[in-house]
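name: query_chain
kind: protein
chains: 1
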Amino acid sequence: SYVLRKMDYVLSMSQSMTKQLKKQNVKKIKEIGNFIDEESIDNERVDNKHKSSGNKRFVFVGSLTLRKKVDLIIKSVFELKSKGVLIYVDIVGDGELRKDLEQTVQKLDLCVLIKFHGHHPKPYSILQKADFFILPSLAEGVSRASLEALFFGVPCILRNVDANSE
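structure:
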């Protein structure tokens, strides 16, 4: 915290982060709540008139790690399917759990409902096809993917942790 107090300014990405910095007596804080470059991704917009009113499509964008809890998405799809409710999920990202998650999807016979896309540096077309963005992370600073989803008008379902409520 000594080093932070010596900085000209400290950038914060959320109100909760700003509060933490203030507790450490950091005075020169600039809060940037929306740090995505909207101008640069605005040209990535696609026509969403093709969205169906039938089965809903969800999208997860992020790293495939324990903290992100992608397994909860898979379990939810399985439970809904067992009750006769079909939803589709696009999983965009890569990580240490990808192989295990893909095997679980295959074992539960969900390959038609859940598609893995791997890492995409610009996942905007997949994101915009979704009815909802979902992020069940146990911890999250400020999710860039959720900010991008909101920018493209995709409602977000987020766990109430860290700055997600902002």
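note: The first helix runs from residue 2 to 6.
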